[in-house]
Amino acid sequence: MSSNELAIKVEHIKKIYRIGVKDKIHDSFGKTLFDFVKSPLKNYRNYRSLYTFNDVDTSDLVADHQQDDIIWAIKDISFEVKKGEVLGLIGGNGAGKSTLLKILARITDPTSGRAEVRGRISSLLEVGTGFHQELTGHENVFLNGTILGMKKKEIDNKFDEIVDFSGVEQFIDTPVKRYSSGMKVRLAFAVAAFMEPEILLVDEVLAVGDAAFQTKCIGKMREVSGQGRTVMFVSHNMTAIDHLCERVLVLENGKLMVDAEPDQAIAAYTRSISQSATDNNIADVPRKNGYSPVLQKVEFIDRRGESVSSVQSGDPLTVRIHYRHDDEIKDPHFGFIVETVMGVKIFWVQTKMQKGPLPDIAPAGVIECRIPRLPLLAGTYFLTLGCGAQTHQLDHVERACQIQVTEADVFGTGRNPNPKIAMIFVDADWEITQGTAVCDKN
Amino acid sequence: MAFFSFSNNSDPIGSQVTIIKPRTGWQAINFKELFEYRDLFYFLVWRDIKVLYAQTILGFLWAILQPLVQIVIFSIIFGKVAKIGTDGIPYILFSSVAIIPWTFMSQAMTTSSQSLVTGQNMLGKVYFPRLIYPVTPILAKLVDFSISMLLILPLFFYYGVTPTWNLLFLPLFIGLMMCVAAGVGVWLSAMAIRFRDVKFAMPFFIQMLMYTAPIVYSSSSISGNFRTLYSLNPIVSVIEGFRASLLGIPFSWEFILPGMISAVILLVTGTYYFQRMERVFVDVI
Question: What ipTM was assigned to the predicted interfaces of this complex?
Fold first, then answer.
């Protein structure tokens, strides 16, 4: 293939991170004091080690077994993207999708390897980057637009269209802090939708906004990809991936596992998920947005009170969440969202909703959510967990763990809803009164 | 070695090739790239200006009030109580022409040194030349500076100071003042993103700097042996320059020239240090 037809060429990209080294806790006052005095030097070494990897041999992938404070976010990935191609990127948590986009977007440097990008590139890793609460919608459009790499002139030309797309015309001269969160997202997405780079990198941004707006955004994405622009697109929403992409890469633990057509890639991904051993220990999952690892572990308890990884449809299920925090948690709330492998969110339970306010709780413990009759049909499901104190979100783990639901005769009739039509089953009573029809009232 | 190589821009599609690879060692400053991002630069500066006094009652009056209060306090303590010698210049006049550029420098240095830390969310989400972060507050603070310069007018009127040809040098010293603030800003912002200690050290650092420069006292009180060392401080150069250009007293170049050289060195080394560290910024947030 001639190199002129390529938009992106990635050759043996690797990226390592070092996670912060945990402090030892001493049992004597003397040792603690000694540690306190020598801590500046230790801290300096620790913080420095975050970005110096002289002790790590980056040519050797076995290294990750030798040093437990090193994370190989990306282990030797190579691929090419043709001009005008729409490429999907899927994979579980920590598979390296976002890191790969960040490297291509030049936000972070690879540890080794090389990539070549031909054409004007823009990245959209978040909607509304740089939005300022005190500025008006109008001003934020210009600020956010230039942050995304647009020129002032381009924004001038498209301003009316952007405002029109966002549907917040009325409030365009109001400071954004008076906007509802939905309005902010719409405005931010509208700006992003009118970027015209030759290459666009998009990370999981379609997951925001209401359903109608999402449909509008997916429509816009299709339009963009139809114009011969190269798009690399990360999402957990397999339906969107399937609709938009021509080719899909599946990443797993920093490696490129599958490079195929969407159907095949999605099938391979869903298969790998249902086969993978479930590790419900989530204490070490890297957190985003400064969340601290309060949520430690999830257990699924079946009807016999045993910890399991799969449960029958219609059975009682207890989700036991182990938590640990530095202090007592005031006005706590816990919750989780259940979604399909395809990224469709099915239900959300939260202490505030089903139970109301909880009393303040000790720094460590377990909280159990009992679902008397699990309405999920057979399949693999993901749980996204969150917890908070007062109005402050403490922790949030996207797709923290998964559960298998096996088929069962839930209604005792031997018939279940067809999973192609339904996502859950619902208990219902049917009653027949014979002899009179509603239309024969008189 | 430059990070980017742009080929001929006359070919519109696919003309721009970006090579992504690990950066090592010292990086050249890519002025062309900075120029490409001028619109962003403009909006970021404008945002800082617009947002600074949002939801305050006094608004831009704060730009006058902050140095004014300091001038009054210093005039009482150092002028009236301590009776510090000012070579015959009324103390309030002597101190105000120094406090105004000093207020600019101290505020610009403080904001600039924290620019990467306060912008860390953006830093991890989008790429643009990282040098824009520490330089933006320097430009934004110029608005405050210009407003606070108005304070000088009534003082000049009251004391009957008439501008002399020395005033022509003022732009040079305004440039020098920005250069010093930017030099400190790039150095410290690159350190602050890795070691948050900078934030805690900043208040004393600023206070120490203030006493190392002839802001509340006159440089003529520095004894001969220390003058060379003393004049290496670029802040001395800025203050002496401002005083001479505005008050029409003779320029004491022995205090001004060495500081000018160190200001340029500070900015150039700071920029290179910043660019050397740039590749790790996102990984250490």
Answer: 0.86
